[in-house]
Amino acid sequence: MNRLYDWIGSQPFRSFQLRLFLYLFLIGSIPVFVALTFFYLHSSERSESEWRGLVAKKHDQVQRRLEREMRELEYMYSVWLQNDAVGQLMRASRDGRDMGESARMAIDSISATAAFQLEYRRNVSDLCFTFDRSGSFCVVGNPYDYESRTARVPANRNDFFVQEEGRNTVSWVGPIYDPVNLVIVGYMKIIVDMSRVLDDVRHDQLLSDLVLWDPATDSVLFESGRRDPATSRSPVSFLSEKNAFLRSENGVFLSQRPVAIPGQSWMSYVEVPNTDIRSLQMTLRNTVLVFFAILLAVSVISSLVFSKLFSRPLHLLRQLMKRAESGDLKAYWTYGSIREIDELGNSYNQMLNRLEETIKQVKQEESLKKEAEIEALQYQLNPHFLYNTLNTIKWVAKIHKTPQISDAVSALVRLLQASLGKKGDFISLKEEVGLIQDYMAIQSFRYGDNVAIRYDIDPLASVCLVPKMVLQPLVENALIHGLENSVKNGEISIHARLDRDMLVCEVQDNGKGMADPEAVMGMQPRGHSAKERMSGIGLSNIREKIKLYYGPDYKMHVISKPNQGTTVRLSLPIHRNEES
């Protein structure tokens, strides 16, 4: 796929002449393709309908031929049942007499008559007679050569059946009985070469394959021809379908029906190649080649003519653009050509004018940017000067052994570094709690033991990342607005836990609370309290900060009632690294 993209983007494919040729070729191919497809579908549908009827007729002929073969065998059996020599052997077997020389003469007579019949009945390969008391004999072979898979004998004088004998043969079996008292004294086998029968039927009906198979054993009995590899998914794919069907697969019609064989429930399966469809496909292929050859020639000639009309003005415009690339911003388009190319040239002229104006504006902005950078460097001196001054106070406090002042100044320095530093927008919850501890260390000089702070932090939550300075302003608001004028001892509790896929942080105080928390969300502190705020961040700013970082699904909730304290709950996603 990458090679295809590279070829499409290559220089030869980007040629206007080549693209015009492809466009004309594709546009011309669509109606040709649609017309040929419609013709093919219409013709193949009509041809397939006709062939389905033809295949049904062919299969009817196959069934009639097999049934006629069985009727001829039955007629042959009835003729032999009336033969004098067979009658002599039947009576001798009935009476239990040993005919001796007369039996041998009768057998010779039967063999001579059978040999004459076998000469003009190619499908019959042998005749065998079995008498209960006189034994068995065959005209050509040995009775033991035709041991059927099922040891069945006729049960009554109307019990005729066919059974497989192996070696591509079947035997048509009929009883030998006394016409006077109807007593069965033996049976007669007519050995038939089924492969020769199926070959004759297949050649007469122009079939590619003809199969007889037994649904009871799911096995192929006899087959003539060769199954089409396109339709035969396995050597015996049709054995899984017990019912009759007629369908077409890959230009070959398949048909299956039960066949009337005495004493059997066999199925016949035929394959007929659809020569009309294949001929139609060949004709269609040749037609497609001729049409596309003509279309190819027309597309090539048309692309050459049209490319000449468009390439000259485009070449001139390209030369002007190269002059503009080298720095000549006065290389304007002044030629008259096709309207679309003239519009392109006018756009190119406007681009040159805007480019010249942009260069002038960039020079002015560069000058202003340098002035702003100088001013920013001057402003950066102020926080560094403040850090240096606080560090000087801290060391003076240590020299004069006043550790409270040193600790307070150190805490203030850490808060300023967190507020103004460039470490990143996110810190761990553990670091955020450290900032709160520094803030409370500073406020302890004012409130002493009147305000206590408690921490309930889940160890798993402490490693999660939160926006920098997101909890400290909440503690500051709770201290200034909730507990400053409270008469009782104040207490601030900080809770953090993991709730499913959320990090829940709560800042709770037992101060005076408020009646309508949402109404005071955007209010800033007034009076002297505003001057003592470290962060300068209101609750509304914190809510907006969470919305900007995480979206509207993560929010801040304020729960408060008068004289019952205030709880601020933050619902944040669980992050353990800043990339996530």
UniProtKB/TrEMBL annotation:
<keyword id="KW-0067">ATP-binding</keyword>
<feature type="coiled-coil region">
    <location>
        <begin position="341"/>
        <end position="382"/>
    </location>
</feature>
<dbReference type="InterPro" id="IPR005467">
    <property type="entry name" value="His_kinase_dom"/>
</dbReference>
<keyword id="KW-0597">Phosphoprotein</keyword>
<keyword id="KW-0808">Transferase</keyword>
<dbReference type="GO" id="GO:0005524">
    <property type="term" value="F:ATP binding"/>
</dbReference>
<protein>
    <recommendedName>
        <fullName>histidine kinase</fullName>
        <ecNumber>2.7.13.3</ecNumber>
    </recommendedName>
</protein>
<keyword id="KW-1003">Cell membrane</keyword>
<dbReference type="InterPro" id="IPR003660">
    <property type="entry name" value="HAMP_dom"/>
</dbReference>
<feature type="transmembrane region" description="Helical">
    <location>
        <begin position="288"/>
        <end position="310"/>
    </location>
</feature>
<dbReference type="Pfam" id="PF06580">
    <property type="entry name" value="His_kinase"/>
</dbReference>
<dbReference type="Pfam" id="PF02518">
    <property type="entry name" value="HATPase_c"/>
</dbReference>
<keyword id="KW-0418">Kinase</keyword>
<dbReference type="InterPro" id="IPR004358">
    <property type="entry name" value="Sig_transdc_His_kin-like_C"/>
</dbReference>
<dbReference type="InterPro" id="IPR050640">
    <property type="entry name" value="Bact_2-comp_sensor_kinase"/>
</dbReference>
<keyword id="KW-0812">Transmembrane</keyword>
<dbReference type="InterPro" id="IPR010559">
    <property type="entry name" value="Sig_transdc_His_kin_internal"/>
</dbReference>
<keyword id="KW-0472">Membrane</keyword>
<dbReference type="InterPro" id="IPR003594">
    <property type="entry name" value="HATPase_dom"/>
</dbReference>
<keyword id="KW-0902">Two-component regulatory system</keyword>
<dbReference type="GO" id="GO:0005886">
    <property type="term" value="C:plasma membrane"/>
</dbReference>
<feature type="region of interest" description="Disordered">
    <location>
        <begin position="515"/>
        <end position="534"/>
    </location>
</feature>
<feature type="domain" description="HAMP">
    <location>
        <begin position="308"/>
        <end position="360"/>
    </location>
</feature>
<dbReference type="GO" id="GO:0000155">
    <property type="term" value="F:phosphorelay sensor kinase activity"/>
</dbReference>
<feature type="domain" description="Histidine kinase">
    <location>
        <begin position="470"/>
        <end position="576"/>
    </location>
</feature>
<keyword id="KW-1133">Transmembrane helix</keyword>
<dbReference type="Pfam" id="PF00672">
    <property type="entry name" value="HAMP"/>
</dbReference>
<keyword id="KW-0547">Nucleotide-binding</keyword>
<dbReference type="InterPro" id="IPR036890">
    <property type="entry name" value="HATPase_C_sf"/>
</dbReference>
<keyword id="KW-0175">Coiled coil</keyword>
<feature type="transmembrane region" description="Helical">
    <location>
        <begin position="20"/>
        <end position="41"/>
    </location>
</feature>
